[in-house]
Amino acid sequence: MWVLVFFDLPTETRTERKAASRFRKNLLDDGFGMFQFSIYSRFCPSRENAEVHIKRTKNALPKKGKVAVMQITDKQFGMIELFHGQKEAEVEAPVQQLELF
């Protein structure tokens, strides 16, 4: 299962820039990686684990801006076609993640 977080946050004022940076830092601290500038992704081994990370994302939402969270299966994620210009780019293989209890 993959969790994708899409966001469009205001950055007009210093306060808004700080809030946007804090939100991105929270995503990185929670194991998300930058897929594109405002899209972060994270592999989760189960739907229950995905729900934990979605809840953390919801708790870190900034006051302003738009945020969307989407869950897709590993098979669906593997069917993504990426392009750099007109050249097809290779999709990075998911990182094996070890969970400790």
UniProtKB/TrEMBL annotation:
SUPFAM superfamilies per the UniProt record, alphabetical: TTP0101/SSO1404-like
Record key words, sorted: Antiviral defense, Endonuclease, Hydrolase, Magnesium, Metal-binding, Nuclease
Residues involved in Mg(2+) binding: D8
Catalytic EC class: hydrolase
Protein origin, superkingdom: Bacteria
GO molecular function terms noted in the UniProt entry: endonuclease activity
Record has Hydrolase as a keyword: yes
E.C. number(s) listed in UniProt: 3.1.-.-
Cofactor dependence: Mg(2+)
Primary role: CRISPR (clustered regularly interspaced short palindromic repeat), is an adaptive immune system that provides protection against mobile genetic elements (viruses, transposable elements and conjugative plasmids). CRISPR clusters contain sequences complementary to antecedent mobile elements and target invading nucleic acids. CRISPR clusters are transcribed and processed into CRISPR RNA (crRNA). Functions as a ssRNA-specific endoribonuclease. Involved in the integration of spacer DNA into the CRISPR cassette.
Self-association state and partner proteins as the record states: Homodimer, forms a heterotetramer with a Cas1 homodimer.
UniProt family annotation: Belongs to the CRISPR-associated endoribonuclease Cas2 protein family.
Name of the protein described by the UniProt record: CRISPR-associated endoribonuclease Cas2
